[in-house]
Amino acid sequence: MVVETPREGRHDEIEAIVDAKDGGVKPVRDEADKYTVVGAAARETFANWLTPVEEHFVCHRNDIPDGDADAWTVSLTGRVEAELSIGEIEDRYPAVAVAHTMECAGNGRGQHDPETGSVQWGFEAAATAIWTGAPLESILRDHGVESAEGTWLTAVGGDPADGDDVFARSIPLEKAIDDCVLAYEMNGEELPREHGYPVRLIVPGWYGVNNVKWVEELRVADAMVVQGSLDRPGEHAYWQQEAYRIHPRETDPATNETIEAVDTWEQLEGGVDHPYTFDANVMSVIGTPDGESPATPKADGTVEIRGVAWAGDDAVDRVEVSADGGETWDDAELFGPDYAGAWRLFRYDWNAEPGRHSLVSRATDELERRQPATISAPDAWRKALENDEYPWNEGGYAANAYEPNGVAVEVGSAADSDGTE
Ligand SMILES: Nc1nc2c(c(=O)[nH]1)N[C@H]1C(S)=C(S)[C@@H](COP(=O)(O)O)O[C@H]1N2
Ligand SMILES: [Mo]
């Protein structure tokens, strides 16, 4: 079992990361004191498309391995048997860059009432970076793996286990071949240690937990990871089969070797008993105005509301904004870069009357799935969705309600403004 005690040295590690990131991130409350977690310090992170490394959240449970790129290897196991050095990963395969909006599956956990324990994220555990690396398609093809049907790829982290559980996560081989990369650079720089140096898996548009850092093994097999899947001691399936599953109170999700519905929302709608957190649910955050200081209208009386919206590996179709806490809505305009797996920018010229206003945004994806308003009461479970609520769940996973992410903004009167903007 996973050890439930605080992890030693965690606070020093968090402090070192906040220092290295120059204050672009802040520590987040972790009830069990187990995780290394920092999130975007300012709402304005969500007013930009590219998240600088300094503002990119960090989340992991174990100590960061101190392995060096020169000595590190990635073993291919299961249907394949090979060992790759970092040099080979860099030189033998094409270098590609992918844009990926990474969101911790626990983002929004702090909005669950009653609280669910663990890390109390608001909306600060989401970010978009450019990850450079080798396409898994090229690596797998080079080793004779092509067919995808019914096959899973399990990535194993080289982080020393806290207790005896191994950090292992499975994704369908189809997704791996479609667009995943083994990344060795982040925003054009060498991967920082806390983000997975020397090599990590990037699964575009899928929740953070699938993006295994410090990858040391990639296993191709007919099943998702279950206990006994891996050729090593310890508990293999905790991170796949127990943690990061969406389920009501006091439920132990059953272990599955495979499932039909992979899309997280489809699972939530009944596709799988206790959904796995795979692709990210449709979500949006307003970046500016940030509510920190009064907003000053431009000469034409408008204030630009700007933010980001994402929907995992589905496309964002529409973003609406409301300046009255969700009573009335207007369409925002989507603009800027449009890459699968990464968020879109949105903007709206708001005729801002002086006074206090409650701004919210809600996104709808191409499959017409819209962010719900709130998180339900604990026992509503799947029925919540019909009531425009996200199901409260014991782990606090994959929440995408819009109301909790709103921002209260004070608009200065024309007389308050200096008239230059
Ligand atoms: N090996 C390993 N990979 C990991 C984790 C971990 O604890 N160990 N944490 C995961 C989780 S829960 C998240 S949200 C993302 C965060 O990636 P980042 O720290 O680069 O933002 O990494 C994932 N990859
Ligand atoms: Mo996470």
Features:
five-stranded mixed β-sheet; mainly beta; Immunoglobulin-like; Sulfite Oxidase, Chain A, domain 2; binds molybdenum atom; binds the ligand Nc1nc2c(c(=O)[nH]1)N[C@H]1C(S)=C(S)[C@@H](COP(=O)(O)O)O[C@H]1N2; single chain; 29% strand; 2 domains; 421 residues; five-stranded antiparallel β-sheet
Determine the CATH superfamily of the largest domain: Oxidoreductase, molybdopterin-binding domain
The number of distinct helices, counting runs of at least 4 residues, comes to: 6
How many strands? 23
Number of domains: 2
Rg for CA atoms: 21 Å
Report the CATH C-level class of the largest domain. Alpha Beta
> Strands of the biggest beta sheet: in what spatial order?
5-4-13-8-9
Summarize the structure in words:
Helix 3 (136-142) packs across helix 4 (173-179). Helices cover 10% and strands 29% of the residues. The protein has helices at residues 10-20, 86-91, 136-142, 173-179, 238-242, 264-271; strands spanning 25-27, 36-40, 58-60, 73-78, 82-85, 96-103, 126-135, 152-157, 168-172, 181-186, 189-190, 200-202, 215-221, 283-288, 302-310, 316-322, 330-331, 333-335, 344-351, 355-365, 374-375, 389-390, 407-411. It has six helices and 23 strands. It is globular and about 65 Å long. With 421 residues, the protein is mostly beta strands. The chain starts with 9 loop residues before the first helix and ends in a 10-residue tail after the last strand. The protein folds into two domains: 9-271, Oxidoreductase, molybdopterin-binding domain (Sulfite Oxidase, Chain A, domain 2), CATH 3.90.420; 283-416, Immunoglobulin-like (Sandwich), CATH 2.60.40. Bound molecules: ligand MTE and molybdenum atom (MO).
